[in-house]
Structures are given as structure tokens and as C-alpha cells.
Amino acid sequence: MRDLILATVLITVVAAGCATRQHDSSDSLPPLDEELAVARAQLSTQADRYLDSALDSIQFNHAVGPTFDWEELRLATIERARGANEPKDTYGAIQFFLSELPGGHSSFRESVAFDGDAPKPPATRVEVSLLDPGAGRIVLPQFVSVDRAASDTFATRAQRAIAATSSRVSCGWIVDLRRNGGGNMWPMIAAIGPLLGEGHVGLSEVRGQPVGQWSYLDGMAMLDSTVLAHARNPILTIPPEAAAVAVLIGRDTGSSGEAIAVALRGRARTRFFGESTGGATSSPMSITLSDGVQIQFAGAFFVDREGTVYRRGLDPDVAVDGRWWESPDAVLDAAVRWLAVEMNCFGESR
Known about the structure:
The chain is α/β, with parallel strands linked by helices.
């Protein structure tokens, strides 16, 4: 699964009347009961074959695997397609099926337009600042480019900004992911690698099996042994005994933004503040149906360094209501107060 190089890279297969993943008898669907057969009889042959192929393709390729209650969801989906005569009459049912699956990234598009002259994604940069009483704050934005040179530049500049501030940081660090909706996770991992620490920081999982380990080493973000982003002249790591880390998350933290939160899970002296994340803790898979419709769903789940699998987002350790643009910023204030106690450093009250 080398295509799992970023949380928004699509693993693409084509469904044209049959399931897309080869399977043997031990991996087949459970027998359809009488209730399911009755529901299917309410569809025309054409609509039934189309819907059955679509649902097979999703089931055989979704990251959740056979432990999910597929038969019950399948029955509810087919009942929603009651009276369908043509494939297009089943579109609403397929969208319902996708919406009920874990991992996020579910989508349904009737056509996909490609614009070869589409503008390049806007440049983004990491913001690093110093807060009273000496806490360093890193606002890590989404980074959507897949260009390797741009990825390396993003990570290198981020580490330089962290280095320029680190000598004045005496009260730990804050990693703010509340505006990070996703993109390319690897430059982000390289950017905050000094706080992640060297070695294994997470992995991807499909049907209970690991398919790619995330690591940080000497400025490099890696999937297994493949380097996918590199911060040049990296700074030294900042171990937990030297600095506690507060991670700020919220409903707008999604996809690769959630991957960074997962990578920080399991780091000692690290605490999460804010709201539950968006729930797209997965790498998406894309399937094209026989009439050109493109559907997308979770192809692999994120797993933290301690082995916890995230299928529906992350929850904070300390729940705090508030959005990043509000003043005062209740989430940021709670994080600073915790750092002051954890690091035994007190300045002006926030």
C-alpha cells in the first residue's frame, strides 16, 4: 500500500459489475437472509446488479473489514433503494451506505472534471511565537502540495522558525492544529519532528493489518524506509523531559491534521485540549463505478505509536469549548495554564 503517502492521496480501483478485490470463500459476504432477498426483489435487475456491485466493492476494500456489521447496513441500504429501475435511482442509497461507515472521507460524485490548468495550492507557512510565561506556540497549517521540493522547503522553514524561538522557550510547547484540515501529512511530520522525537510515531492499518509505518529521523519523515519529506539541517529533538507539549484540536482538525495529532499521541508529557476532531482519521480510497460515478471512503485507518486505532477522530484530554478565532481563546488559555503547572513556570495570568 505504498499509495498511503498522504492522508488525501487516493487509492483508485474500478468497479464494473463485480467486486474489485479478489477474494476466496473464506472472505466472501455472509449469506443473504430472506429479508435481504425480499428487499432486493423490489429493484429492477439492472438497478439491483449496479447497487450490489457498488456495495460489494466498498465492502471488499474498506479498511474496517469483516468485523463491521455489513449485512445490517446492506439491508437498510437496499430498502432505501426500493423501486429503483435504473442505476441512478440507487445513488441516494449508496450515499447513505457511505455515510454510515467509519473513518470519514466518504464522498459520492457523479462526474469528475479535470482541469489541467488548475491553480497551484496557496503557499502556507508555520507560525511560531512566544507566549507568556515562556511557552512556544506552533500553529501548524494544512499543507496540500505533493511537490517534493515544496514539501522540503515547508519543513525546513518550519524547523528554522522553531529553532529561532526555542532558546527563549522555558515553559513547554503548544502545537495548534485547530486550523489544519488536512493535505500532505509528511511535510507536517518533518516540520514538528523535533517534538515528535526520532523513531516510530504512527502507522496505517487495513483490516487489522499494518500497511505502513510512520517515522521521523534526522529531519526526515518516512513511510517505512521511503523518505517523503526532509527538513534540511534539522534541529535537535526536544525530548519530553525537557518540554511538555499541549496539543490544540477541534472540529476543523481533519485528515492529515488528525494524522499529526495521532503522531503526537503517546508522547510523554503531552496533553490534548479543545474539541473532538473532524473524524477523517484515514487515508481515502477511490472507486469508479461502471457509469463513471466516483465514490470515496476510508482505505486505511491511523494508528498511534502505542497501537490505538482511530476510526472516528480523536477526543481531547481536556474538553474546552471555543474556536481559534475567538478572543479570549479559551482553549489556548487552558493549555497555557496546564503548561505553567507541568513545567513549574508562572508569568502573567492568562
